[in-house]
Design a protein that fits this description.
With 294 residues, this protein is an all-beta fold. 2% of the residues lie in helices and 41% in strands. The protein has a domain at 116-284: TolB, C-terminal domain (Neuraminidase, 6 Propeller), CATH 2.120.10.30. The strands form five sheets. A five-stranded antiparallel beta sheet has the order 5-9-8-7-6, with no helix packed on it. A five-stranded antiparallel beta sheet has the order 14-18-17-16-15, with no helix packed on it. A five-stranded antiparallel beta sheet has the order 19-23-22-21-20, with no helix packed on it. It comes from Leptospira interrogans serovar Lora str. TE 1992. Keywords: Lipoprotein.
């Protein structure tokens, strides 16, 4: 039940003095130095959970005041921190969703806003490419994916420059998305994107800049080959090197789906489709709102 722990353990804890238990407010996690970092939307915090024999939850960054103030982790403020990513130098990147900003927390605990004149709209997922040092940011409301290079310069990487939505493959700058969310990269530098409204898993080859649909496109639930499988808002995406597979958190189907990249098949790994919080093996378990992975 390893994946279930990663998804739900932070729904049961609170970083603020008063209880803020609400499954909808925990959106994205990142792993750094045996610690899970988690975004708490409602209270504008980032919290941490130390992975030890006796896990300890503590406030990591944010004052609880909804604002966009830089400073240290104890004085900085956020407004709907949503996506998290960590680079190889230990810098933490946060998509500050309602502020429409990308924030950076360095290993010394300094929080700064990455400057750009580009109109980020609802930045959601962030993914770091260890080969180049680039970061990719999905913007849900503008249906775009931006690139932040190693010098912290922003550019439009994929999607329409005029914020058009749709399902169009091909060259990255001629492609169309509809509410892209979380992302992951495989060793061949394919960037996989979970799409809320297209109900698809999209694939962007970072070497060629070509966008394709890996699977999905019709709302529903159906296992099978990549062309016939159906999803219902697959938000969370994680590449598993050992299995050479993608895991997809299929939020409205209440299931964890497995996409076998070698055999080109989709199967249900966990969940029975009932929106609940029930432990069990495989498809005997129930999930309420599976969102993201570590």
């Amino acid at each position: 039940m390893f994946y279930r722990i990663l998804i739900f353990v932070l729904v049961l804890v609170s970083c603020s003095p008063a209880s803020i238990y609400n499954p909808s407010i925990f959106m994205s996690q990142a792993w750094i130095e045996n610690t899970i970092l988690d975004c708490i939307l409602k209270e504008c915090y980032l919290c941490s959970l130390k992975i030890t024999n006796k896990p300890v939850v503590s406030l990591f960054a944010g004052t609880g005041v909804a604002a966009s103030v830089d400073g240290t982790t104890s004085t900085a403020s956020f407004k709907t921190p949503f996506g998290l990513e960590v680079d190889t130098s230990g810098n933490i990147y946060v998509s500050d969703q309602i502020n429409n900003l990308i924030r950076k927390i360095d290993p010394s605990g300094n929080v700064k806003t990455l400057s750009t004149n580009l109109p980020l709209q609802d930045p959601s997922g962030i993914k770091f490419d260890p080969l180049t040092g680039d970061k990719y940011v999905s913007c849900k409301d503008s249906n775009q994916i931006y690139k932040i290079d190693s010098t912290e310069q922003f550019s439009l990487f994929a999607g329409s420059s005029s914020d058009l939505s749709g399902l169009q493959n091909g060259d990255r700058l001629n492609s169309l998305f509809d509410s892209p969310f979380f992302m992951d990269i495989d060793p061949e530098r394919n960037l996989y994107v979970g799409e809320l409204s297209n109900h698809t898993i999209r694939k962007i080859n970072l070497n060629s800049g070509t966008v394709s649909t890996l699977s999905g496109g019709i709302s529903g639930y159906l296992d099978g080959d990549l062309a016939s499988a159906r999803f219902k808002s697959p938000l969370g995406i994680a590449y598993n090197r050992k299995m050479n597979s993608l895991l997809a958190a299929d939020i409205q189907d209440h299931r964890i789906r497995k996409i076998d990249l070698k055999n080109s098949t989709v199967s249900t790994l966990l969940g029975n489709g009932i929106g609940a919080d029930v432990d069990g093996n495989g498809t005997n378990a129930s999930f309420l709102v599976p969102l993201s992975f570590l």
